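hey
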């Protein structure tokens, strides 16, 4: 076999190996924009315009997902066929990705923006805790070994509490919400799609000047 044919054969063989193109971690995929990172969590803001497709990327870290829009999408696990999906705004899901790492890509089949938050757990806040703590005074979506997720409506926001582990609060829909840090007297207005990070040991509550439907999701790191 000539050197040219040998090089051509090797090049074609390399192109046939899908794993070569799947070495990018999710935090390095261009459509997954890191917007917050500390020793406990990494928050990725994922936006995919209509018709766009992500690169193949790797999920290997315990992660929470909060869907902020409701487009038709499709996902493709590496080496498999495309699968159509519908995710509704406000949906919350969790996946450990250990040991079942995921290598996939996503395409937006719809005419509206695909917007989701991917929150990766980098370190537990209190790994030596022996007795589970009771939930904060908010309605619980789920409670597992890594996180507690809460969903607040307008009537739940008036409860004042102190954070234990790190918290991320994100407004899915409704009128603007004000996060009030009662310890420092600082406040921050959150619009739909935006989030606020709350340090451990913070005395806080939420408020709204408008009476109406509110969908506010809060994640607590254990």
């Amino acid at each position: 076999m000539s050197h040219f044919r040998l090089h051509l054969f090797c090049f074609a063989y390399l192109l046939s190996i899908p794993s070569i193109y799947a070495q990018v971690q999710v935090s390095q995929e261009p459509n997954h924009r890191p917007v917050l990172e500390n020793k406990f969590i990494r928050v990725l803001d994922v936006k995919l315009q209509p018709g766009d497709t992500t690169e193949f990327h790797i999920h290997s870290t315990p992660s929470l997902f909060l869907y902020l829009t409701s487009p038709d999408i499709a996902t493709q696990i590496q080496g498999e066929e495309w699968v159509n999906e519908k995710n509704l705004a406000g949906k919350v899901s969790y996946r450990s990705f250990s040991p079942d790492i995921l290598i996939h890509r996503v395409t937006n089949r719809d005419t509206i923006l695909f917007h989701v938050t991917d929150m990766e757990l980098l370190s537990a806040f209190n790994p030596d805790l022996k007795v589970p703590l009771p939930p904060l005074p908010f309605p619980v979506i789920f409670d597992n070994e890594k996180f507690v997720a809460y969903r607040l409506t307008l009537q739940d926001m008036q409860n004042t509490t102190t954070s234990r582990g790190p918290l991320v609060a994100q407004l899915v829909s409704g009128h603007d919400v004000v996060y009030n840090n009662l310890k420092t007297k600082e406040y921050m207005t959150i619009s739909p799609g935006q989030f606020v990070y709350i340090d451990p040991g913070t005395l806080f509550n939420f408020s709204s000047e408008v009476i109406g439907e509110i969908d506010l999701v809060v994640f607590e790191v254990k």
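The chain has two domains: 3-121, 140-221. Residues 127 and 222 are 7 Å apart (CA to CA).
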